Amino acid sequence: MSENEIKKIELPSITTVRDLAIKLDTSPIEIIKILMVNGVMANINQQIDFDTAAVVSAEMGLEASLEIPEVSEIGEVPLWRQLIEDEDPENLIIRPPVVTILGHVDHGKTTLLDAIRHADVVSGESGGITQHIGAYQIKHNGQKITFLDTPGHAAFTAMRARGAQGADIVVLVVAANDGVMPQTKEAIAHARAAKVPIVVALNKIDLTDANPDYVKQQLADVGLISDEWDGDTIIVPVSAKMKTGIEDLLEAILLIAENYKILANPNGTVIGTVIEAEVDKTKGIVATFLVQNGTLRMGDAIAVGTVSGKLKAMSDFSNKKITEAGPSQPTLVLGLNNLPKAGDLFQVCETEREARAIVNNRKRKDEESRSIKKTIGLEDLFATFQAGKMGELRLILKADVQGSLEPITNSLNEIDQSEIRINVLHSEAGNITENDIMLATASKAIVLGFNVKTENIAAKLAETEGVSIRTYDIIYRLIDDIEKALKGMLAPEEKETVLGQAEVLQTFRISKLGTIAGCRVMNGELRRNAKARVLRDEKNLFEGDLASLKHEKDNVKEVRSGFECGLRIKGFNDFEIGDTIESFIVEEVGR
After folding, report:
1. Which of 132, 227, 441, 524 could form an S-S bond across to 465 if both were Cys, CB 3.0 to 4.6 Å?
2. Spatial contact of 519 and 581, defined as CB atoms under 8 Å apart
């Protein structure tokens, strides 16, 4: 480094004085002194934002840049697979494949599982729809296969969002008389995002209106080309109801498993995934574990997500008591101190004390991450790419009608992708839903909407998970934003927040100042440093800055609901009684 070169340092969006001192290799007292000189009073545990920390860094001769949170590559290798890669190859054995069945709601997923495991599940469930997540293991030609009976791709993706792969192979059930449906496309998107091989079970071929060739063409149109047509997707005709084609389906699963060489070390580190958990009235907390490496044993101390415990009882999927469970074996366990979440990873610890320490550390980190969670948006794309933490832009595209999707997708494909590749994980007509946000969360994707709304529950989940949603009503603006994002030229997105509304009760003309509006705040608050707009008959007449805000005779910073005030807006004098004054602020999103 040359003498004139300024040393650079990366800082998080929010830090404490103590942590900043450690980063800058100085004492907290020095940091506090610099803050005081710059008009900021703070103690050693005070949180300060990036801009403030950057000023302190500059005073100490360092150039600060915002720390870009790490963005995982799509289909990130799960922890247990990383673990296996570190194992001695001589200790690895082939383990049974873990299979999940996805597809449209009434295409026969549960009936197919029923046919596979010869157990009547459908009749005991409401409307024939799976109401829980279960795990079952069967034997075919001497080889074991584990099936996860999930309620759909949402649960499959929830596991991915929490770090678990969820399955080694996906069986996509498509009805031969109904074809590819919206949920079918969603399931394909979720499986592809997880980079899991897909076997298609073409169900209901026994029906008179079944049309297998037409459905195969539909599947080819969405990228699942049959191996009969020189593609790489195995499509197996089955009838779950008549129990035909089941043997062929199991053979196809084992063939794919053999090609992928699914391995584990039964004597290695014990790690796995929570499939489901519930509170039983007589047994207490019961969880279903799926072991993915090592061997789980009775009495093991467990850390799972933010829950710990010691295994007091174990049983297999048929409720038979067992004392240990090896790789790919689903196991019912008792002994946890709280309910874990489906998809949480569990690990065996040396002692219960160690398990509790791990869990307490995770809880602390979760609280910290929630307080400083940052939405990674298009504006951050280029910086993230330059930092070497992203090689592609992953998008979920929703539009008002199917006819809008094609021109948008074609325009995206025409954009120069020489540096950053565009990967549209899923595109569909309809509003932005919770399921879209779950897929975006698990895949580190951005959601784009054209002429659509975001459902309330989806908006709340996006805010919680830090998923960026951008909506447009003109196609060229959407494409233009993507092009700018790829070049690092996109300005931050702005979000408007309405603070409150007031009604004009009277107006006063003052020659040197202009017109003063006497108002009563109807809801929220009016704020002195916020923007204001004048609404009349629900039409926006004017937007500008407040020139003054008074309560009685005093200048005030804010006036809350139920109180009266006088205000003046810069550049506007045409108030009328009955006008609505709306106070609002505009903030940059993700900054």
Report:
1. 441
2. yes
